[in-house]
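User: Could you go from structure to sequence for me? I need the amino acid at each position, not a summary. Structure tokens:
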């Protein structure tokens, strides 16, 4: 058994009886960051990977990742087949490839009975996303999607405050994601940028599919209100590009709650400018990624409150189990990734132990949220194609 026989579902997350074996599909910068976060949890060790489709480069990755050459594969198909046949094969894989590979890679491992954590957007097409939802259900495999912004402790605290009625009835939701890394005229020439602007690999969007989906997921995650309608406009605000570098959207959530959603990569001075604001009949919440340890919580006509992350600082027990340091010692994106991989590890362990988990125990984004993100992208494209007209998701 990987999990303890008895679990206190209201207490800290339990330890596992062994580290889970993780495989890596994709060898770019994101895979290194996610592997670092997975190791941080103490629940994973990287044991195999398909780091490149070039056999020479795939084997060379063995030295970089400290892995035996025979477990560095030149294709995810080969990896899925080989690892499924090993007694010490991977328990799960992370898929951190360009977007156009997500569907085929995820399907190969689900078909092999191996759990998956996939980067967003889940796929480039709605039909593929829905097929993965169905396949995950048929196989019973755990399928996480990397909407990592929802794994910051203060975002979990905000979600709880909303659920407990802290802001009253929600009347508007606003999210923006401002970055500046595409500001230089030659930014599109960088190797790690080219695929993000290539419709054959990135899909029909660039900015929307990459960072806009984070913003859309965060709005629904914290508010508990699904996105139902939107109208959007795509723009190329910098040097000419085949896909948008900026977009603006007006949104409607469940209960006809209005909002705004915007994202750009041409906002000089903004590195990680993700900002969420949720306002209700009795109060409001505001969170900024660049000040991620703090959550502003205001009740109308009461003194302003700043809720901050850290052990012993008054956050809820559900939030505190995602915290690693005492108050005053900051945490960031690696720790948020670690929280995602912690919840993923517990879900994988439970499946392998044959345990049923309480629905609200783990809140990591799953394949259904990934499919919702693809439907969001599709709606943005359809609206932009109709000169910014309203469309339903």
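Assistant: Here is the amino acid at each position, in order:
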């Amino acid at each position: 058994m990987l999990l303890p026989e008895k679990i206190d579902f209201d207490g800290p997350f339990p330890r596992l009886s062994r580290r889970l074996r993780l495989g890596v599909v994709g060898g770019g910068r994101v895979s290194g960051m996610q592997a670092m976060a997975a190791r941080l949890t103490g629940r994973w060790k990287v044991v195999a990977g398909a780091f490149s489709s070039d056999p020479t480069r795939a084997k060379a990755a063995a030295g970089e990742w400290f892995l035996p050459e025979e477990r560095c594969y030149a294709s995810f198909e080969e990896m899925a087949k080989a690892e499924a046949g090993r007694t010490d094969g991977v328990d799960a894989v992370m898929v951190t490839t360009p977007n156009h590979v997500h569907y085929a890679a995820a399907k190969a491992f689900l078909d092999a009975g191996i759990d998956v954590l996939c980067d967003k957007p889940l796929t480039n097409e709605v039909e593929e996303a829905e097929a993965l939802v169905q396949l995950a259900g048929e196989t019973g495999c755990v399928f996480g999607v990397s909407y990592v912004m929802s794994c910051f402790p203060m975002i979990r605290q905000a979600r709880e405050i909303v659920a407990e009625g802290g802001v009253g009835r929600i009347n508007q939701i606003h999210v923006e994601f401002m970055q500046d890394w595409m500001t230089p005229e030659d930014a599109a020439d960088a190797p790690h940028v080219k695929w993000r602007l290539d419709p054959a690999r990135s899909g029909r969007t660039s900015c929307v599919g990459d960072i806009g989906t984070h913003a859309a997921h965060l709005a629904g995650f914290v508010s508990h209100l699904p996105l139902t309608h939107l109208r959007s406009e795509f723009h190329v605000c910098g040097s000419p590009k085949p896909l948008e570098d900026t977009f603006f959207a007006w949104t409607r959530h469940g209960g006809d709650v209005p909002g705004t959603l915007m994202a750009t990569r041409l906002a000089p001075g903004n590195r990680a400018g993700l900002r969420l604001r949720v306002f209700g009949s009795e109060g409001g919440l505001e969170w900024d990624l660049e000040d991620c340890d703090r959550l502003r919580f205001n009740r109308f006509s009461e003194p302003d409150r700043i809720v901050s992350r850290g052990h012993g600082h008054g956050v809820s027990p559900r939030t505190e189990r995602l915290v690693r340091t005492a108050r005053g010692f900051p945490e960031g994106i690696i720790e948020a990734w670690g929280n995602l991989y912690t919840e993923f590890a517990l879900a994988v362990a439970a499946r392998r132990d044959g345990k049923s988990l309480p629905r609200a125990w783990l809140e990591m984004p799953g394949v259904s949220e990934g499919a919702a993100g693809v439907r969001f992208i599709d709606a943005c494209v359809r609206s932009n194609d109709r000169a910014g007209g309203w469309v339903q998701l």
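One structural detail worth keeping in mind: The chain has a mean pLDDT of 95.
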